């Protein structure tokens, strides 16, 4: 394997004295987790939310780390070098770095030779729609023959060859290391989800974005951000024209949803911005903004998706979209607007838009003859659940069922709100488990129930397989069953254990069995 850098270069990029006499040797990768360290890697030891990474330095050295960066709270110790024991000799240099976790993304960017500057990175943020928009952009640029990679919830890697990811936005080191792999693989475009956690935890500082994109902001993650205004501030740090406030380097091109109340405000604060709306009633105001825009004069919904009459600063077109729901019209227009802002040719983009396919686990329709229609969707916030139910209603001639739960160890405040939405927009509700994680499943369901006004039409079936099985056996052919919350996930986390589990697999088995019987 080709080394990425050397020890002296690393010391210098940290700000160390170039004239210091130091042994120099090759370094392969920076590693934040001792369990991933290999020969000639540097272990980066930081204090985390649950454990102190500094406790794993011996394991990292045994696994092959040849140098260590360690977090220090003392400014005076910044860049101090200690030598740690290995094979009875004190040979492993450990550099103390002041505020290491905060600086990590910039350090990793320098270590990996600024890969984002050699790529066209599109950073997408928002409560809902990040995965959809990044996937739509990647589908389109791939169809237009630009090699494209994705970083996000469904995985990281070249489009169509994703490796599963732990986080929506990977660690500061992994982001830069993955981007450097993409440079080697001659990728041109990277569509990247930027989560609010990723922004606040400094996972993307130092990133160079060709464009930054905002889908929407609604309630989620208040366990972490505490208030909506802090949550909004985290998202704004991807766009702010004030360099002290903004967390990434950008060429200043942003694409923002005008239909969102935060988006509307932000558009007014930005000069290099493309405004997007999927509301025909907003078209006039959109045109009057004096900024590039993508809007609609009319949308006709149909069984397969929607016929969108698009108007934009680049030209007008009719797009026959194969995606379900109004929110997906918004996602599609935001994706189109991003590509047009990045100077992709108008006709190529609007022609390709008709071929874009639904995303795995997002309004994914599973249907067999003589059975109710099942829709698997990743709605796990109140706003997403409302949008997914409204979209499902269009395709429902009978009763609209919703099966959902809420993830454990996550925002508890959204639980009763999701119940209220379910009561308002569905006919029958089945409450079940999502990923309970370390919380008691009955307590989670109890929290959800607090938002219900009536006990009519509610069933509680904690086991998710049972919930789906029993609902399918009760539903009629004309009914629609929305199974929300887990989308593409092929696991269920109970306690700290991850079990294999997939909504799609269960539904396919049940529909197949019904059809055979
Ligand atoms: C609370 C939180 O966000 N934690 C994130 C954080 O972990 P941490 O630094 O606190 O880790 P820790 O477990 O305390 O360990 C401390 C250090 O010891 C190291 N370690 C630990 C064990 C060991 O054997 N060896 C070892 O070296 C760890 O690698 C780490 O460097 O940094 C890690 C690397 O970036 C993340 O993987 C991890 O995400 C956890 C798994 C998580 O669940 N995060 C969620 C809340 C999250 O970030 N979600 C957003 C999506 C939100 C959205 O939907 O918009 C996301 O971007 O994924
Ligand atoms: N533009 C939108 N507005 C509101 N809801 C949406 C929108 N796009 C998608 N959704 C809903 O949110 C769910 C998740 O969509 P998606 O995976 O694209 O979002 P995300 O932002 O990547 O989510 P996460 O933060 O979990 O990664 C969808 O299954 C759908 O129910
Ligand atoms: N990115 C979101 C996904 C939630 C998905 C849902 N299935 C859950 O486990 O709560 C989170 O980590 O909060
Ligand atoms: Mg996502």
The named CATH superfamily of the largest domain: Mur-like, catalytic domain
Can you tell me the CATH class of the largest domain? Alpha Beta
Q: Helical stretch count?
A: 17
User: Percent of residues in helical segments?
Assistant: 25-40%
Low-confidence stretches: none
Q: Ligands bound here?
A: ligand UAG, adenosine-5'-triphosphate, 2,6-diaminopimelic acid, magnesium ion
Q: What is the percentage of strand-forming residues?
A: 15-25%
Instruction: State the shape.
Output: globular
Structural class: alpha/beta
Q: What distance lies between the first and last C-alpha atoms, to the nearest angstrom?
A: 56 Å
Index terms:
single chain; 517 residues; alpha/beta; Udp-n-acetylmuramoylalanyl-d-glutamate--2,6- Diaminopimelate Ligase, Chain: A, domain 1; UDP-N-acetylmuramoyl-L-alanine:D-glutamate ligase; Protein-Tyrosine Phosphatase, Chain A; 3 domains; ten-stranded mixed beta sheet; six-stranded mixed beta sheet; 27 strands; 32% helix; 24% strand; binds ligand UAG; binds adenosine-5'-triphosphate; binds 2,6-diaminopimelic acid; binds magnesium ion; cell cycle; ATP binding; Mur_ligase_C; nucleotide-binding
Description of the structure:
With 517 residues, the protein is an alpha/beta fold. The strands form 6 sheets. Strands 10-9-11-8-13-15-16-17-18-19 form a 10-stranded mixed sheet, sandwiched between helices. A 6-stranded mixed sheet has the order 20-21-25-22-23-24, with helices on both faces. It has a 5-stranded mixed sheet with strand order 3-4-5-7-6. It has 3 domains: 10-98, MurE/MurF, N-terminal domain (Udp-n-acetylmuramoylalanyl-d-glutamate--2,6- Diaminopimelate Ligase, Chain: A, domain 1, 3-Layer(aba) Sandwich); 113-353, Mur-like, catalytic domain (UDP-N-acetylmuramoyl-L-alanine:D-glutamate ligase, 3-Layer(aba) Sandwich); 364-516, Mur ligase, C-terminal domain (Protein-Tyrosine Phosphatase, Chain A, Alpha-Beta Complex), CATH 3.90.190. The longest helix is centred in the middle third of the chain and has 16 residues, at 326-341. Helix 3 (100-111) runs parallel beside helix 5 (172-184), helix 4 (130-143) crosses helix 11 and helix 11 packs antiparallel against helix 12 (346-353). It is globular. Helix content is 32%, strand content 24%. The chain contains 17 helices and 27 strands. A hairpin with a 2-residue loop joins strand 26 (491-494) and strand 27. Residues 32-35, 46, 48-51, 53, 56, 166-169, 171, 195-198, 203 line the site of ligand UAG. Its EC number is 6.3.2.13. Residues 361-487 form the Mur ligase C-terminal domain. Residues 29-112 form the Mur ligase N-terminal catalytic domain. It is found in: Cytoplasm.
